[in-house]
Amino acid sequence: MKIYWFEAQAPRRVLALVKHLGITAEFAELDLMGGDLKTPAYARLNPNMKAPVLVDGEFVLWESSAIMAYLCIKAGSDMWPAHAPAEQVEVLRWLGWNDCHWSEVVGPFYFEHIIKPGFGFGTPDREELKTKVDGLLRYAKVLDEHLKGREFVACGRLTIADFQLASMATYWRESEMPLADFSNVVRWLDGLMRIPAWADPWPTERTRRANAG
């Protein structure tokens, strides 16, 4: 099994899951700025020219949520409830909510404060982010109410929905996301950071050093 990645939120979910489940895999780090995602060979693996991509023998899979479900099935983990349809629906709801709502409002803060300086795209545009605050507050309230009395997002246990929703929001302090007043969201995010594989998902020493510095 081989996983193509670079240091960003979607690969983070997959890499954390691989480490958490103890799955053996080969990791191929992509040079985003060097054009690795735009090569013909990579485009044949993922026509979207994004990461992550999983290659398992002749099987090729892209989209992080699908990759996470596949990894759970391979490992026999109920982080994706393959044999429990009602739980699948619950997890799917939150995967969909993330992709349609949550990622749309946390993404601009993550991009301005993490991606732009991390890849040399410039400095954060805080004036632009002022227009994004209302949307973030709206959906943070939804998530905060849902997490009241809950440790995890779905099924009463850790699932791939937690990794999906937390991937950009994990950096809420560095990204200046206005989440401090949402105590349940903060508690949930801080709780996930106590999972070793989530706190340190990256597979290379070089990346770990860069992440720490």
From TrEMBL:
| Ranges for domain GST N-terminal | 1-79
Please state every residue range assigned to the domain named GST C-terminal. 84-213
Task: Give a single Pfam family match.
Answer: GST_N
User: What family is it from?
Assistant: Belongs to the GST superfamily.
Q: What is this protein called?
A: Glutathione S-transferase family protein
Organism the protein comes from: Nannocystis radixulma
Q: What is the lineage of its organism?
A: Bacteria, Pseudomonadati, Myxococcota, Polyangia, Nannocystales
